[in-house]
Amino acid sequence: MDIAFRRLRPSSDPEPLIRFLTGESWPFHSVSEVDRETARQWIADGRFDNEENRSFWIDDDDTVGLVRLMDLTDDTPLFDLRIRAEHRGRGIGVRAVTWLTRYLFEELPDIRRVEGTTRQDNRPMRRVFLRCGYAKEAHYREAWPAMDGTVHDTVGYAILRRDWLSGTVTVPEWDDEK
């Protein structure tokens, strides 16, 4: 599989993005079922393409996913990753996070770190973070409300520029309250 990343410009043609977002369930996102009105509003608000955000299609033979980079004017950007259900479990997440990490550090020389969060029960994404050199930095209890009213723990990961450059992982000192 030879995936590629293609810049998304939803203002010129929003329909492919609307179809992507509404075409299936996103079980580990706070809005797991996106309707057309919500998708249109997100696009109009600049959620996918403005000074703070850039988005990229993940392409194989067709569009298999979406990477959204956020807080790009901050020194610690975040990202959102959505992979279509039929393409999950094929290593696309690791390739996408590896790509976006390199992209951010190379394109934005002032950033110090890249962060991401996921639900505690999203084991595949947690493995992606670790395989890509991210360190677990946070565990927020009952911090991720779901559409059905349940509340999940949130786990935060980050990679430092210096770790990315050296190929190491610096873990936080967890036991620092003597």
TrEMBL record:
<protein>
    <submittedName>
        <fullName>GNAT family N-acetyltransferase</fullName>
        <ecNumber>2.3.-.-</ecNumber>
    </submittedName>
</protein>
<dbReference type="InterPro" id="IPR051908">
    <property type="entry name" value="Ribosomal_N-acetyltransferase"/>
</dbReference>
<dbReference type="InterPro" id="IPR000182">
    <property type="entry name" value="GNAT_dom"/>
</dbReference>
<dbReference type="Pfam" id="PF13302">
    <property type="entry name" value="Acetyltransf_3"/>
</dbReference>
<dbReference type="GO" id="GO:0016746">
    <property type="term" value="F:acyltransferase activity"/>
</dbReference>
<keyword id="KW-0808">Transferase</keyword>
<keyword id="KW-0012">Acyltransferase</keyword>
<dbReference type="InterPro" id="IPR016181">
    <property type="entry name" value="Acyl_CoA_acyltransferase"/>
</dbReference>
<feature type="domain" description="N-acetyltransferase">
    <location>
        <begin position="3"/>
        <end position="162"/>
    </location>
</feature>
